[in-house]
Design a protein that fits this description.
The protein has 421 residues and is α/β, with parallel strands linked by helices. The chain folds into 3 domains: 146 residues, no CATH class; 78 residues, no CATH class; 101 residues, no CATH class. 34% of the residues lie in helices and 15% in strands. Strands 1-2-3-5-4 form a 5-stranded parallel sheet, with no helix packed on it. Helix 2 packs across helix 3, helix 5 runs parallel beside helix 8 and helix 5 packs antiparallel against helix 9. It is elongated and about 120 Å long.
Length: 421
């Protein structure tokens, strides 16, 4: 029975899972946890997704696992004991995962809201996930071979230990027949050649000169030219700039550091790195190619954050998923329909009639909006979209209808809008 004490907590940390390279989806975190505690990795992924709904805690915990869990072929981290301090492992995380983690935190920290989304629900999500980790450890305190950090060797993943082989004087296999004949050294052995072989330069074993020459050691592959260090340098600088700017916004209350501006500053740092790399004369395959995809990712965050800034593209309420509204009477017809992300359909084809002029607004953040217009009611349409396509009648629909006018407005940030009969 495992008890909650200091030693157990240290054992939980020292036997933490190892990120697996095989069967991974994203960085091998869920696969490593599943193999360490003998659970289906799909269940681990579901747990992170559910935790993400608790104030985004699943995202932060996944990034924490990405940093804390060593790679399968990483250098073994130092075991933590009650008398030791500090943890190792940051050096074995690829720079692009750390950069992506910071970008995700910056992008999700204030997206669509005036304050960070972390709160009491996020603390609840962290508590539930840590409790799940504790239960998994109680069920499987002894890690299977090659699945925990304490089983990594000095050179990374566990490997079969072979005795050292002297490459200068490789061993020579002597047939058993030769050994039996060599047992009686008093009998002369006729020479089989004039010059001793390479494995017997002193000529002390003439009875075995008929053995083949040793196979020469394989030629080692040519060393690869070192890649440019600009990728790691400027990616690290971009992470530092984004982290300091985010701290200034969240802790210091500096409102100038919005999500879009933070991403723009990080993008500027990456741009300087790409400019310096372009003027250097380096061979193909040794340039700082990693800056390009990272700059594209940060650029996408900057563009989306800019769209959501200044009220130009607000993320309305209404949840996520598919919505279909089918009002049949004037009393059932609402003045506004909202959806955050998904597909929405406003079906007005069965609307019985109007008692007065009405205005209906369909507001959505991301996705597709479809409005099915009635056949016997006078309708005016208006579509506004930030990014995407729209199919909206330019003139009044059913202009000859002797009814009050129904004005339908569709407002969408990113996606497609279509109004049709």
């Amino acid at each position: 029975m495992v008890s909650m004490d200091t030693k157990t907590l240290f054992d939980m940390w020292n036997t933490r899972p190892v990120r697996q390279r095989s069967g991974k989806s994203i960085a091998g975190v869920c696969t490593g946890i599943g193999r360490r505690y003998n659970v289906d990795p799909t269940l681990v992924k579901v747990a992170f997704v559910v935790a993400a709904m608790f104030g985004g805690s699943g995202i932060f915990l996944y990034l924490a696992c990405l940093i804390a869990m060593p790679g399968q072929h990483a250098v073994a981290p130092r075991a933590l004991t009650p008398d030791s301090h500090g943890l190792r492992g940051m050096h074995e995380i690829p720079w692009y995962w750390i950069a992506a983690a910071v970008v995700c935190v910056v992008a999700l920290g204030n997206m669509g809201s005036s304050s960070p989304f972390w709160g009491s629900s996020g603390l609840l999500g962290v508590a539930l996930m840590l409790g799940g980790w504790w239960l998994l450890y109680m069920r499987t305190p002894q890690a299977p071979a090659g699945t925990s950090a304490d089983q990594l060797g000095a050179r990374g993943a566990i490997e079969t230990i072979h005795p050292p082989v002297n490459s200068e004087y490789p061993p020579v296999a002597v047939p058993s027949v030769g050994l039996s004949k060599a047992a009686d050294l008093s009998k002369p052995v006729p020479p089989t050649g004039d010059a001793p072989p390479a494995w017997d330069p002193l000529g002390t074993a003439r009875f075995a000169w008929d053995l083949p020459e040793p196979t020469p050691p394989p030629t080692p592959p040519a060393p690869k030219p070192p890649r440019s260090r600009l990728t790691s340098i400027f990616a690290g600088l971009a992470v530092i700039v984004a982290t300091v700017s985010t701290a200034a916004n969240v802790v210091g209350g500096v409102e100038w550091f919005t999500v879009g501006r933070i991403a723009a500053l990080a993008l500027a740092v990456l741009g300087v790195g790409m400019l310096i790399d372009s003027v250097q004369r380096r061979r193909a395959g040794t340039r700082a190619a990693g800056l390009v995809p990272l700059a594209m990712m940060v650029g996408v965050v900057a563009v989306i954050a800019t769209l959501f800034a200044g009220g130009r593209a607000d993320l309305p309420a209404g949840g996520v998923g598919d919505r279909t509204w089918t009002p049949r009477t004037s009393e059932q017809l609402g003045s506004e329909y909202q959806l955050s992300v998904g597909t929405s359909t406003l079906d007005l084809r069965n609307l019985a009639g109007l008692d007065r002029d009405r205005t209906v607004v369909v507001r959505q953040g991301i996705g597709d909006v479809t409005v099915l217009l009635p056949d016997d009611i006078r309708v005016k349409t208006e579509c506004r979209i930030a990014i995407g396509d729209q199919v909206c009648p330019e003139s009044t629909v059913n202009p000859d209808a002797k009814t009050p006018t129904l004005t339908v407005k569709a407002e969408l940030s990113i996606g497609n809008v279509e109004m049709k009969k």
